[in-house]
Amino acid sequence: MMLFLVGSATSQTWLNDQGRTDLDPVLKPFYHGVASGDPLATQVIIWTRVTPDSAVTTVNVDWRVAMDTNMTNIVTSGSTTTSDTVDFTVKVDVTGLSADTWYYYEFSALGSNSLIGRMKTSPTGDNSHVRFAVVSCSSYEHGYFNAYARISARNDVEAVLHLGDYIYEYQAGEYSGNITGRDYEPTNEIVSLADYRMRMSHYHLDHDMRLIHQRYPFINVWDDHETANNSWTGGAENHSPGTEGTWADRKSAAIQAYFEWLPIRVPDYSDLERIYRKFSYGNLIDLYMIDTRIHGRDEQVGLTSPSLQDSSRSILGQPQYDWLVGKLDSSTAQWQILGQQVVMTPLELFGNPINADQWDGYPIERQVFWNDLKSKNVDNVVVLTGDIHSSWANDLPFDSATPYDPGTGDGSVGVEFVTTSITTPGISIPGGAALIMASNQHVKYVDLDQKGYYVLDITKTKTQADWYYVSTITSVDTNEAYGESWYTNDLDGFLTGTSTPTAATGSSATLPPLTPHELLISVDELQQSAVLFGAYPNPVDNLLLAKFYLYEASPVTIKVIDILGKEVATEVLGNLTAGLFYADIDLSALAAGSYIMVLETDRESFKRKIVKN
């Protein structure tokens, strides 16, 4: 990222040259696209974000759901409002839908239509086949989201399961592939609500992320980087209270932005730290998205600490543990699928665990959990895992009166499929995959380096994971290659390898168009010179950050106007090239009250109402 100072010493403007000079004005004011998520049999969340030009604090938004991409066969519709209190994001829980059905949806606001999104409800009854894409760990600064693009092009899955690290919290250049054009915004490590909102906005402007959200519903769960690295319920390795405020405040800000910017249903409004929840796909699958990070995790300890074997230590917390075991015990579905963050199977080198941040750091609770699975006769357990930036296929070696047999799989309580990252670098282990598998005979497949995803294909006879890898992440690229496949048969509880991926049958649902189906404003009105995405934080104490995009080179000035129309602050940013920018404006000299911030180019002006504390 290039950093340069313009105007007075109180204002800084950064050029963020991210290859977004092709930001399409036809998307106005829905530049961040659309998304859907948390599909149930009769309802799905739909989402968008509105970017107003004027100094409004609320916007009326209409929404429609149809059976066709022309949006003529409308099945339900409604109106809602959004405001600056939720960063102008829009979430609607659409109800009254039919099970196992593809739908199309769109929003209208400020005289324009959004992109058309596509979503699918979950099935009920005796269904025989479900197919997901499984992803995790998308570090923007480490490369392009080519894996998202490859999933978008498949058109053969009905939802995307994201197992966490949807965003990363680091400052620009701190944890980075140093790829020109892939820089974080804001440049600082994100700590405040304004920071987390801007990082979420930054991600949603990525073309490949916008496309995959447009085409499939997501089922998300967070990991640590949505807050801070190696988080637990009371803190994080990458959080310093002395300079970054309280962990409670940072965690609350991160969670608020997460629920604002993702199409996720809040499980419990009285406990916003709760994200664990259940989805049913007919009598074939019960899917549990659980939280091994925030809700109940005790602080990590060293691998040689005597506390490692403390039976009171938990990675889930008692309320979530009881909820999960109770749901598993009462389920009548054939397959029990657990979507979660960190590796569950034991991972050792020379007889010693190597990572206390995963379930190996909580071995007593893991064994109690496996004991409960066995004692309650919970069969067909499939664990889905992210976090580790590499691909794994593991048995879960239950230590009981029937010791695990790596040759037959006897003694395994279930299986685990670990998805690699979208972009984040893999792990370095001395001796590599060969030493890992020699030291851990329940580990059947390891790839430590390649980036991509897997397709999870679930039928009445087996559940199989097929890994696919992109050829590069350092540039935009459309190539991918099939990697490997492992499956577990019904009631086996252990893995078997195959060289044949499951068939990509394709979807009968038409892909939605890449532009809004009907322009409600004239082409001339689309020829704008800039977009003002937002002003953060709002209310503001001292420094206000304006985030904006220029379609063309222009001189830019930012003014602040009081309620009497008097210009009380002015920053001349000078001649800027086309691209994405943000600028700090020092308002410390202003009295508390309401103001209008005005961004002026040589052709237009854009306004935001702001409140000074």
Feature tags:
3 domains, 14% helix, seven-stranded mixed β-sheet, 613 residues, globular, Purple Acid Phosphatase, chain A, domain 2, ten-stranded mixed β-sheet, Immunoglobulin-like, alpha+beta
Kindly describe this structure:
It is a single chain. 14% of the residues lie in helices and 34% in strands. The strands form seven sheets. It has a ten-stranded mixed sheet with strand order 7-4-3-13-12-11-25-26-27-28. Strands 16-17-18-21-23-22-24 form a seven-stranded mixed sheet. The longest helix has 15 residues, at 247-261. The chain starts with a strand and ends with a strand.
For the termini, the CA-CA separation is 31 Å
Rg, nearest Å: 25 Å
> What is the 3D shape?
globular
Level of helix content?
A: 10-25%
The main pleated sheet reads as: 10 strands, mixed
Lateral arrangement of strands in the main beta sheet: 7-4-3-13-12-11-25-26-27-28
- Alpha-beta content class: alpha+beta
CATH topology grouping of the largest domain: Purple Acid Phosphatase, chain A, domain 2
Mean pLDDT: 93
CATH superfamily of the largest domain: Alkaline phosphatase D (PhoD)
Tally of DSSP helical segments: 9
The assigned CATH architecture of the largest domain is 4-Layer Sandwich
Low-confidence stretches: 1-21
Number of strands: 35
